[in-house]
Amino acid sequence: MGDTPQTAPTGALTGVRILDMTRILAGPWATQILADMGAEVIKIERPGAGDDTRSWGPPTITDDGGEDHGAAYFHAANRGKKSVTVDMAHPEGQRILHALAAKSDAVIENFKVGGLAKYRLDYAALSAIKPDIVYCSITGFGQTGPYADRAGYDFLIQAMGGLMSVTGQPDGAPGAEPMKVGVALTDVLTGLYAVIGILSALRHRDATGEGQHIDMSLLDVQVATLANQAMNYLATGTSPGRLGNAHPSIVPYQAFATSDGHVILAIGNDGQFARFCEVAGAPGLAADPRFATNPERVRNRDTLIPILRGIMTGRSMDDWIAQLNAASVPVGPINDIERVFADPQVQARGMQTEPMTPEGRALKGVASPLKLSRTPPIAPIAAPRLGADTLSILSSLLDPSDFDMDRLLTEGVISDLPSGANHTEEE
């Protein structure tokens, strides 16, 4: 584990040090989760520029004193980390990163395949320095295969991995075309799988003393998370199509218009359907052989859904939600993001939080969903200013007789946070 004292609040991963050479979303999402759980995450950034997403604004986010802290996108995936600026193209920068890797438990990077070999920062080079290192590579298509050298982006992978083929209105409906998901879901899922891989490899290292290379591919993750849609194809040989908000295997399980808005009706079994029919004043539907069981409702979807649409428009959204919830029938509104954060359940679960800056100012942020009874996530810490931790981290982890900080600063191998600098993109 990391060999310097930890001053931050303890969490399940306190004492684990992560050397983070990622940017954009998939890699930073993974390391943010590790930081939430107490790991020390040293985020390596380019001097003068940093992670690309530092400039992905507007919008920007301001603290409770009105100070601008830069792009909201960057803050979505980088809380709790320490920013160290190092020029990895410079031989001295490579020496610095070798020294940091030697004192880290895991390294994570999302460069193109082979992109770090020329800097001697690939798995072969770093495992020679620290044989038990856990090294996670995130790429679009993986380290092997005919597409390995291609760049991969979430939107592209959603298309190539099949997700867009089952998302969007069906052919013939207004607005019919394949659609991407409204967030970079493949990146987020890849970040989650990367965390699982890193923690599994650290468990193996603790048991055996062996490090290993984790090869994470966005395309692999997208194929794996096609879930039931993938199995539907493998079971039938027929590719599932787009159904809009409907479900291929459950009916009724989709959006319905009410007299004043839309609700999601998510009926998962025959008992729920029977209770829905009672509330709807149409108990005969549940007794009808065409609709009595879910397989029959799926087969007779085109007959049942128009009937239900006519029924649902007869009452208001709030009436349906109140009456169906009272009958234990799953139903809910389609919330915009403002309504999400105003929802009493979301508020009760503490999903909006206030990461604190080193100056004691509060930002707005989204909380970790992990709720562990013994080792919960640490108190949220704001995403760092570019280079804010360069000197403190390097001074504590590097041999002062081997690295001249003043010379490194003068030569631009590293950069310090300018005196009096604010959280802006011009840092």
UniProtKB/TrEMBL annotation:
The protein's name: Succinyl-CoA:(R)-benzylsuccinate CoA-transferase subunit BbsF
SUPFAM superfamilies: CoA-transferase family III (CaiB/BaiF) (SSF89796)
Keywords: Transferase
Domain of life of the organism encoding this protein: Bacteria
The protein's Enzyme Commission number: 2.8.3.15
GO MF annotations, alphabetized: succinyl-CoA:(R)-benzylsuccinate CoA-transferase activity
Top-level taxonomy: Bacteria, Pseudomonadati, Pseudomonadota, Alphaproteobacteria, Rhodobacterales
Membrane-spanning residues: none
Organism: Flavimaricola marinus
